[in-house]
Design brief:
This protein is α+β, with helices and mostly antiparallel strands. The chain has 3 domains: 119 residues, Helix Hairpins (Orthogonal Bundle); 66 residues, Urease metallochaperone UreE, N-terminal domain (HSP40/DNAj peptide-binding domain, Sandwich), CATH 2.60.260.20; 94 residues, Urease metallochaperone UreE, N-terminal domain (HSP40/DNAj peptide-binding domain, Sandwich), CATH 2.60.260. The chain is built from 8 helices and 11 strands. Strands 6-7-11-10 form a 4-stranded mixed β-sheet. It has a 3-stranded mixed β-sheet with strand order 1-5-4, with helices on one face. A hairpin with a 2-residue loop joins strand 8 and strand 9. Helix 5 crosses helix 6. The radius of gyration is 31 Å and the shape is elongated. The protein starts with 5 loop residues before the first helix and ends with a helix.
């Protein structure tokens, strides 16, 4: 895998502070955000690069490994472990407890990355490829049905199937679509985090949906039929006489699809919001006064 200069992506120096990193990330994330650059593939790629750079450099431990090992920073622990094992063998063979010398350190890297040393070389050690992380921005309606989507990660187009019912913040793993393994090692995995924007009138609660609808005063008092919109169409409801304000009714199976459960849905909860009539005529006011007198009897 080619080296990616995260400092260059964020436009900062290697001496940048945590505050500098955060400031640079926020500025670039706003600049290349998909919502501000719809259908712009270049901006989409930049946005993902900026997020990846921030994930590494904003974490002090990851940043330290990246500064030392570059593109192989995710294998730092394996490198350190191998170095410790070689140091242990060296001390055991010499019967000494001395420090790790500069020559020994050089020999270690020869054994890891190739050279003239007689010790095991990098070709003998297989390392798993780096895991990739990506964020996919979708609307709520986009995840109501299973559909195909093409995602670009590190310049590669990945065609994936997004199951209906995916939740906001959910992370799924695409095996083997991360970085290429080292020395024939297995590829890393791709982790996709879903960021789902709900711009509908429905509120989502796991697989259930909630919606508030206006209920006319006369219909609430006398009862009758009314038509409301669900997420995928309209249905007719029978309103009971004398229905009170904020009464809730459940429409079974009219909610959101259940993740990876074909044909199964949550429920839709309808909250009645009583709508008081305005701009009454004199006749209407008189009738209400008569009703009020009748109620006093």
């Amino acid at each position: 895998m080619a080296f990616i200069d995260y400092y260059k992506i964020l436009g900062i120096s290697k001496k940048a502070s945590e505050k500098d990193i955060k400031k640079a990330y926020r500025k670039l994330a706003r600049k290349y955000h998909p919502d501000l650059n719809p259908n712009d593939k270049v901006a989409e790629k930049k946005f993902k690069e900026v997020n990846e750079a921030n994930e590494v450099l904003s974490n002090s431990e990851n940043r330290k490994k990246y500064d030392q090992y570059g593109k192989d920073w995710k294998h730092a622990e394996e490198f350190e472990k191998t170095k410790q094992q070689q140091e242990y063998k060296r001390r055991s063979s010499q019967g000494a407890t001395g420090s790790f010398s500069g020559q020994d350190y050089s020999d270690f890297f020869e054994s890891m990355f190739g050279g003239t040393s007689s010790r095991p070389r990098s070709g003998d050690i297989k390392f798993r490829g780096q895991d990739y992380n990506a964020e996919l921005h979708l609307k709520l309606i986009d995840v109501y049905k299973t559909h195909k989507h093409t995602l670009t990660v590190n310049g590669k187009n990945i065609r994936l199937t997004i199951p209906a019912g995916v939740k906001n913040g959910q992370v799924i793993k695409i095996k083997g679509h991360g970085g290429t393994g080292i020395n024939g090692g297995p590829n890393g995995d791709l982790y996709i985090k879903f960021s789902i924007v709900n711009n509908s009138k429905f509120q989502r609660d796991n697989d259930d949906l909630h919606v508030t609808v206006d209920l006319e005063l006369y219909l609430a008092i006398l009862g009758g039929d009314m038509t409301i919109e669900t997420f995928d169409g309209k249905v007719k409801l029978k309103v009971k006489p004398e229905t009170q304000n904020e009464t809730k009714v459940k429409l079974k199976g009219k909610g959101f699809p259940k993740y990876k459960k074909e044909g199964q849905y949550g429920d839709l909860y309808v909250n009645y919001q009583l709508k008081v009539p305005v701009n009454l005529t004199l006749k209407e006011k008189e009738l209400f006064k008569e009703l009020d007198k009748l109620r006093e009897v």
